[in-house]
Amino acid sequence: MKKVLVTGAFGFAGANLVEHMSGDSYLVFALGREGSSHNNRCKGLKNVVPVYCEMENYGDLPGILREKGREFPDAVIHLAWGGGRDDEAAQEANVKASLDLMEAAHEMGVKRFVGIGSQAEYGIKDGIITEDLPPSPFSAYGRCKVKAYELLGQKAREYNMEFIWGRIFSLIGKYEPSGRMFPDLVSRLKKGEGMILSSCEQYWDYLDAGDAAEAILALLERGLDQNIYNIANGDYRPLKEFTERTAKVLLADHELITYGDRPKPFVSLKPSVDKIYRDTGWRASISFEETIKNMI
Length: 296
Hints:
Elements (H helix, E strand, L loop, with lengths): L1 E6 L4 H10 L4 E7 L15 E5 L8 H7 L7 E4 L9 H20 L4 E7 L21 H20 L2 E7 L1 E3 L8 H10 L4 E3 L5 E2 L1 E3 H14 L4 E5 L5 E2 H11 L7 E3 L14 H7 L7 H8 L1
Parallel strand pairs: 1-2, 1-4, 2-3, 4-5, 5-6, 6-11, 7-10, 8-13
Antiparallel strand pairs: 9-12
């Protein structure tokens, strides 16, 4: 049984991942913050051990696991990340915490480290987004994700540790918090209430969080060392098409949705998923309509 430490284990993407890992293949050290209201999400899952540690204390993880009488993990999946997207200090703190985690992983003899980045690293791109495009982020969040990728990759080479970086595009589904577009749109349309959106002309790509969990596991098992992978559906469409399909699933009046001005900056996403499929065999399998029905 492979032992895996997962940071951000009780968040949106993390909780979906830990649920998919629960069973007989992995012993999961589910790392989160003490006192979080989300800590019950993985309660009772088979072979899942909760571990609590603030991000600024990641360097203490070897000692924390020793105190619990636990063996050290074979691999790390790093999802935890906090702070506002334009909060430079908070974003830089995430980079430091990521490097502290890498140091702790090295001390524990970890052989494989999967870091999770974001489409925000690419910035504004025309055409298909492949992993070989140079990053050009416009937010502190995107810049610090790029910085974490570069520094973690350097440290991994120094420590002879395998390192894979997955860039998530747009997730929807189970545990998605309110305040994001689709949970709010579903909620309002169900009540017969209207919602004002942007022009929704930009292309977007939505991936069910359950599919994302399987993609991350594919990278853990089969991703190639020192490689970047897009984690996306690959079925990008104009955003308006997704909102109209949502109304159709809900049997709601399309006229409840009002479309406004083009967003600024105008970010349009057309991610390629050829590389992750080629190297791991993973493909998305959950339809957009199925995700919306599950949200209901």
